[in-house]
Automatic annotation (TrEMBL):
Identification of the protein by name: Phospholipid-transporting ATPase
GO MF annotation list: ATP binding; ATP hydrolysis activity; ATPase-coupled intramembrane lipid transporter activity; magnesium ion binding
InterPro entries for this protein: ATPase_P-typ_cyto_dom_N, ATPase_P-typ_P_site, ATPase_P-typ_TM_dom_sf, ATPase_P-typ_transduc_dom_A_sf, HAD-like_sf, HAD_sf, P-type_ATPase_IV, P-type_ATPase_N
Keyword set, alphabetical order: ATP-binding, Magnesium, Membrane, Metal-binding, Nucleotide-binding, Translocase, Transmembrane, Transmembrane helix
Annotated positions binding Mg(2+): 450, 452, 1010, 1014
The organism of origin for this protein: Klebsormidium nitens (Green alga)
Top-level enzyme category: translocase
Regions that span the bilayer: 120-139, 336-357, 381-404, 1072-1094, 1100-1120, 1184-1201, 1208-1228, 1248-1267
Length: 1338
């Protein structure tokens, strides 16, 4: 398309998009699309398709559809506006998508294939097939089909219903309307009709139908804002930009996009726009991805690059990682044992038949002839073996699988309804995203936690700054009202607090009032305001603030509202109730009109709360970011608008740990603005910072080690005096950084330098080549950034405060009292991590620190680990050596190991426990790795116990420690420590630490985090918990459970985790018990039937016993029973050890249950047998009917005796189950064709029948009852003691006999809530421990 036609299109679009057909009051997305689909706007221009489809032909390129030279043939070429030409060489996928799994033809075979991946289903299918063989049939063929078919049909219906929902969603999405450019102009079409190369028009609040390359937007800057929550979970808006070559009409468009093949990476896009004369690079910032929503943008136009299944959203549309619970793995082990027992029972029957046939005349036993045909002794024994397998098949309970799924579903619903896990400010409840691992919550041994946003609030406040070697850390919060424009502002428009503070400093005058000021308030240091007005210091402060405002990814958006409208009340995300969006709404910058006129207010959108804090701080001091595009940055510098042209951006990444932007300043000079971590920034400073002078030229680190400052390129030779000044500046800045870190602040270093014209020209050529490279683009840009970011001039450093979430110290203390080991894995620097660890009581006075940091090589790390192992683990890892001495050992390259006396470290004043006078936080951090520390003599008397060690290790050392050669030593040291803090770690290192513990310790692990950098750790752990915080929702989307606050983790594990494990563990054992007692009852009968497989029970009773007679009480108890209340579990967190030690369900309990089962089965069989044998004999079916009723009564009584917490639901279900049993047996008794026709009518008239019904179940459970009572009274467990205390608090007033546990006069129990454990005195806590563990946890 020629330039004139494209210019006309843009002009007409800008003039026509305000029509009422396109811009309407918000009616919801569906209503808006439906109204738009009826007819295109009348004002939309009609554009000839040939004008947009033939740019390549106009240029004379006959091979426009093929890949350009030097590009792999797999790369796709998209001709703008011509779908036919785009797909001429390759048939690209259409935009129709299908997320459903099945079709009408594939549903049955595929669903059956998926279901039979369960080995148990194959077992039952084999049993069902064997029973269809006439010679092996034990009971009715129809009845044998019922159990497996019932399970298969129920599961198929569930799967089909779920898939039908997906199919309906697919139909709705594929039929959604949009506008596509056709030869006749803009025409409505369905999403499924779009193809690669089509030009699509979007309006505000419309969902993007395919992956589009952005061509133009309503604004002159070519910026569009998108909400990517549907794709990556993030609620903050992201800016996307159209290239000026397509946005501006005068540039012209060549007409084709060359892009990489489809892939899943939503954060990268490698492509270029072919202009004929040159290439225009395209990146992810130029794309609108399918599923995103266009926000705060009137309209946008894009060309389809990927459609349907090739879009990044569909390529990433995969299910969550499948996890199996530990209980289910143990259950499979016991299932194999039961299968072995079944084989043994059948072998006994087969051998017994063979022996009996050898001793008797087979002609006199017609039932062995199976219809008159005799197969010999071996043949009959083999046939009997298979017949007994069919008869005794329910020893492996098929009903258990159905019950497990139902119970887990009910448990998840109950957890989600817990109001104690509801966070009202965010309207967030607990979300159970994985329903098959609920019980694992009660067996966790290790908790791995992120710090920022997980332990802290991730609401950053600019708290301190170091500029030109001066510390400005005395900021106070000022709630400033929005200002009127500068022309109408009063003389003293500054807030009174600032004015008074500045006036107290001396004659320095405050800066003039500005037209923009943060509406939400900010931390302001009056001395910094005065320094800004000082002619000697103002230049350095101004450069510092410019970097704060410009070197970031924050995008300001303009919103018009009246003074009565609350901030952000009109933003779409807030109207949807998104708490994450509300957290990002600050800071807001306003300019109000006179007389209540609508205000123009800025709202900042950022991907990081750190950057929001930077921009807020700059605005608070008069440097307000007004506009950001791909081409320019506009800053209001104390009332003066300054425009900085963006020449290039080197984006932040975890490897470089810094970000830089090259800008052309208003004065015409080119400057490089850089910010990053101190460890990454200091080596990049100019040579003058490393010159020798009267001050130290080597920086002291937090752990006392001197780190050299490697030289980097400078541009001119400086004098020795300049070098001394620069060195002093660096030393002062580093001292301030250490101070900020000790106070728990997050730190960054800011720097800049001027770029001469010749360097700019060379850099621009390299940047253009790297940005347009089709292969290795990221590596080329990273190499160019490393080459450019050298010889920097230090501006200063920042300290951002990130406060702890409410209840974090109490929750960590609660988890540790419960026996869990809490590890913190963070990317923050060592000082910050240690300070926060003390604040949240992860590190305490009683611990001896082991610090392994800055290991420059694997040998240095090995030396540090070997030193720690020899000092504290006796050289073998077998235990912790008592009387350890504090000593320092350094390896080659700076690897360091420190151990200092933990008892001399004082608590932080802000911790929740009471703290008197003690050392300061900075002294504590120094003693945990600083230059100071305990002397050898002092530490020699410490004698740390094995539970008093705490490990602090950084990412640099961890990369060596996780190697195969050193991981065993690291594991031995870490496992001996009560707390571990890993700092400066990368996301993959977090996952590596979790994998190490899972692999070596064989313990249950839980990882909790809130950001995308925590996803790998969350997926690696046995349980992944996501926090819906300020860093998007990637962690929530990858998690098994999602909570809103870290403090909810205590209740989730100690209450719901304990309940889920206790309930499901008991349910599994109970299902094994009730099926085994039924099978043994049938087994004893073969001793009296010449070892044959004849059964006294009808076929339907055999089937209904597990599925109908006994299933409902099991499900009710496993869903609702409570051994102790939530308040008791929080009051006595040591009860959590029951799940950690597999107390409820283990091998011992399994075999004890089997022994009890054997006793009960013998009583059930022989009591009726001898009762009826003593008098007139009953028929076979009468005895069988009695056995069936007795075993149902016995297992129900057994269950009732084990219920801890009776409710109306328990009563209703138990009595209803017994009623169903009797009614079903009466119905079966009434059918003439039934095997037991009218049997119960005759049996109920016999007194012996009722005597057995009343007495046999009681005799069966009597031993179990006596053992339970005796153990509870004379050998109480922790649960027994806790229940007794709970009942005593409720008014029971009794005591247990045994041990030293007297419960009369117990202290008042706390109320419900996660904070019920707080405020306890240490003496009372020790008393509770003694009371709960008189004989140890069982």
């Amino acid at each position: 398309m020629n330039s004139v036609r494209w210019r006309q299109l843009i002009v007409r679009l800008k003039g026509s998009w305000t029509s009422t057909a396109c811009i309407k009051p918000r009616q919801g997305r569906v209503a808006q699309r439906e109204s738009a689909a009826m007819a295109p706007p009348a004002e939309v221009p009609t554009v000839e398709l040939t004008d947009m489809a033939s740019p390549a032909k106009a240029e004379g390129a006959g091979d426009s559809a093929g890949p350009p030279g030097g590009v792999d043939a797999s790369w796709r070429v998209v001709v703008i506006g011509d779908a036919e030409a785009s797909s001429a060489e390759a048939r690209y996928a259409g935009n129709k998508v299908r997320t459903s799994k099945y079709t009408l033809l594939t549903f049955l075979p595929r669903n059956l294939w998926e279901q039979f991946h369960r080995v148990a289903y194959i077992y039952f299918a084999i049993i069902m097939i064997l029973n269809q063989i006439p010679v092996l049939a034990v009971f009715g063929r129809t009845a044998s089909l019922f159990p497996l078919l019932f399970v298969l049909i129920v599961t198929a219906i569930k799967d089909g219903y779920e898939d039908w929902g997906r199919r309906r969603s697919d139909r709705k999405v594929n039929a959604a309307p949009c506008f596509r450019l056709t030869p006749g102009g803009w025409a409505p079409c369905a999403w499924r009709e779009l193809r690669v190369g089509d030009v699509v028009r979007l309006t505000a609040d419309e969902v993007v139908p395919a992956d589009l390359v952005l061509l133009a937007t309503a604004g002159d800057s070519g910026t569009a804002y998108t909400e990517t929550m549907n794709l990556d979970g993030e609620t903050n808006l992201k800016s996307r930009h159209a290239r000026l070559e397509t946005q501006r009409a005068g540039e012209g468009v060549a007409g084709r996009v060359v892009c990489e093949p489809p892939n899943r990476n939503i954060y990268e896009f490698t492509a270029y726009l072919d202009l004929g004369a040159g290439r225009v690079p395209l990146s992810a910032g130029n794309m609108l991805l399918r599923g995103c929503v266009l926000r705060n943008t009137e309209w946008a136009v894009g060309v389809v690059a990927y459609a349907g299944p090739d879009t990044k959203a569909m390529l990433n549309n995969s299910g969550a990682q499948s996890k199996r619970s530990r209980l289910e793995k143990q259950m499979n082990r016991e299932t194999l044992v039961l299968a072995g027992i079944l084989g043994g029972l059948c072998a006994v029957g087969a051998i017994g038949m063979g022996v009996w046939l050898n001793q008797h005349d087979t002609r006199r036993v017609p039932w062995y002839g199976r219809g008159g045909e005799y197969h010999g002794r071996a043949g009959e024994a083999l046939l009997n073996f298979f017949s007994l397998i069919i008869l005794l098949q329910i020893l492996v309970p098929i009903s258990l699988y159905i019950s497990l799924e139902l119970v887990r579903l009910f448990q998840a619903l109950l957890m989600q309804c817990d109001l104690h896990l509801y966070y009202a400010p965010a309207d967030e409840r607990l979300k159970c995203r994985a329903l098959n691992i609920n019980e694992d919550l009660g067996q966790i041994r290790y908790v791995f936690s992120d710090k920022t946003g997980t332990l802290t609030q991730n609401r950053m406040v600019f708290h301190a700054a170091s500029i030109a070697g001066v510390d400005y850390s005395h900021a106070t919060r000022v709630e400033a009202a929005p200002l009127v424009p500068a022309s109408a502002a009063p003389k003293d428009a500054l807030a009174p607090e600032i004015k008074a503070a500045v006036s107290s400093l001396g004659p320095a005058t405050p800066p003039p009032p500005t037209a923009w000021q943060p509406a939400s308030g900010a931390m302001v240091d009056a001395r910094l305001l005065a320094a800004l007005a000082d002619p000697h210091q103002g230049h350095a402060v101004r450069d510092f603030l410019i970097v704060l405002a410009a070197c970031n990814t924050v995008v300001p958006t303009t919103v018009k509202r009246t003074p009565e409208t609350p901030p952000s009340a009109g933003t779409p995300a807030t109207r949807q109730g998104s708490f994450a969006r509300r957290a990002f709404e600050s800071p807001q910058v306003s300019s109000l009109g006179r007389g209540g006129a609508p205000a123009v207010q800025l709202e900042y959108q950022a991907e990081s709360p750190d950057e929001l804090a930077f921009v807020a701080a700059a605005a608070a001091y008069g440097y307000t970011l007004l506009e950001r595009t791909s081409e320019a940055i506009v800053i209001d510098a104390q009332g003066t608008r300054e425009k900085y042209s963006v020449l290039g951006v080197h984006e932040f990444d975890s490897s470089r740990k810094r970000m830089s932007v090259v800008v052309r300043a208003p004065d015409g000079g080119v400057r490089l603005l850089v910010k990053g971590a101190d460890s990454a920034m200091v080596p990049l400073l100019g040579q003058l910072y490393t010159s020798k002078g009267p001050v130290h030229s080597r920086r002291p680190s937090w752990d006392g080690k001197q780190l050299p400052l490697p030289p980097s390129g400078g541009h001119r030779r400086r004098s020795s005096r300049e070098g001394d000044i620069a060195s002093s500046l660096l030393t002062a800045t580093q001292a301030h950084l250490d101070q900020y870190a000790r106070e728990g602040l997050r730190t960054l270093v800011l720097a800049h330098r001027a770029m001469p014209p010749e360097e700019v020209a060379a850099w621009a050529d390299k940047y253009r080549a790297a940005a347009t490279a089709m292969v290795g683009r990221a590596a080329a840009l990273a190499a160019l950034a490393a080459e450019t970011e050298t010889g920097l001039t230090l501006l200063g450093a920042t300290g951002i405060e990130d406060k702890l979430q409410d209840g974090v110290p109490a929750t960590i203390a609660l988890l540790r009292r419960a026996g869990l080991k809490v590890w913190v894995l963070t990317g923050d620097k060592q000082e910050t991590a240690v300070s926060i660890a003390f604040s949240c009581q992860l590190l305490t006075d009683e611990m001896t620190p082991l610090v392994i940091c800055d290991a420059a090589s694997k040998d240095a790390c090995a030396a540090a680990l070997a030193s720690a192992t020899a000092q504290y683990l006796g050289g073998s890892g077998g235990g912790v050596a008592k009387g350890a001495r504090a000593r320092r050992k350094s390896g080659d390259g700076g690897g360091q190991y420190r151990a200092v006396e933990g008892d001399r470290v004082a608590r932080l004043q802000q911790s929740s426990s009471s703290s008197g006078a003690g050392v300061s936080a900075s002294e504590r951090v120094q003693r945990w790795g600083g230059a100071g520390g305990a002397t050898n003599g002092e530490a020699e008397a410490a004698g740390p116990s094995p539970r008093q060690l705490a490990l602090v290790i950084d990412g640099q050392s961890l990369q060596y420690a996780l190697s195969e050669e050193l991981e065993d030593q690291l594991f031995a040291i870490a496992r001996a420590c009560r707390a571990v803090v890993c700092c400066r770690v990368a996301p993959l290192q977090k996952a590596g630490v979790v994998a190490l513990i899972k692999r070596k310790a064989k313990e249950m692990t839980l990882a909790i985090g809130d950001g995308a950098n925590d996803v790998s750790m969350i997926q690696m752990a046995d349980i992944g918990v996501g926090i819906s915080g300020q860093e998007g929702r990637q962690a929530v989307m990858a998690s098994d459970f999602a909570i809103a606050q870290f403090r909810f983790l205590g209740r989730l594990l100690l209450v719901h985790g304990h309940w889920c494990y206790q309930r499901l563990g008991y349910m599994v054992l109970y299902n094994f018990y009730k099926n085994a007692i039924f099978v043994l009852l049938l087994f004893w009968f073969i001793f009296f039937t010449q070892w044959s497989s004849i059964s006294a029970l009808s076929s339907w009773n055999l089937v209904f016993f597990s599925l109908l007679y006994t299933s409902l009480p099991t499900i009710a108890v496993a869903s609702l029973d409570q051994d102790v209340s939530a308040a008791t579990l929080l009051h006595y967190p040591h009860l959590y050890a029951i799940g950690q030690d597999d107390v409820t369900y283990n091998r011992t309990m399994f075999w004890v249950t089997m022994a009890d089962t054997t006793w009960q089965s013998l009583v059930l069989f022989f009591a009726p047998y001898f009762t009826f044998a003593a008098g007139s004999p009953a028929t076979l079916w009468e005895v069988g009917n009695l056995w069936c009723l007795l075993v149902t009564l016995t297992v129900t009584l057994h269950l009732a005796m084990d219920v801890y917490h009776w409710t109306y639901v328990h009563h209703a279900v138990v009595w209803l189950s017994l009623l169903i049993t009797v009614v079903t047996m009466l119905i079966l008794d009434a059918f003439p064709a039934s095997q037991q026709y009218w049997v119960m009518y005759h049996a109920w008239g016999d007194a012996r029948y009722w005597l057995n019904v009343l007495l046999v179940p009681l005799v069966c459970v009597l031993p179990r009852y006596l053992v339970k009572v005796g153990r509870q009274w004379y050998f109480p467990t922790a649960v027994h003691v806790a229940r007794a205390k709970q009942l005593a608090h409720q008014g029971g007033g009794f005591s247990l006999v045994g041990g030293a546990t007297q419960l009369a006069g117990t202290p008042r129990m706390p109320g419900q809530g996660s904070g019920s454990h707080e405020g306890r005195q240490k003496g009372e806590e020790l008393k509770d421990v003694a009371e709960l563990h008189p004989n140890g946890v069982p």
